[in-house]
Amino acid sequence: MTGAYKDLVDRLEEERCLSATDGYRRLLAPDASPEDIAYLHDAARRVARAVFGGKIYARALIEITNRCRNNCLYCGLRRDNSSLSRYSLDTSTIVECCGKAYEAGFRTFVLQGGEDPAATVESICSMVAQVHGLFPDAAITLSLGEWPDAAYAAFYEAGATRYLLRHETRNPYHYSRLHPPGMSLDNRLRCLETLKQLGYQTGTGIMVGSPFQTYCEIAEDLEYMAALHPEMIGIGPFIPHSATPFSGFPSGSVDMTLRLISILRLMFPNANIPSTTALATVGKEGRVKGILAGANVVMPNASPPEVRESYSLYNGKMCRGREAIEGLDALKRELAGAGYELSFEKGDFNYQYV
Question: How many CB atoms lie within 10 A of CB 278?
Answer without folding.
Answer: 28
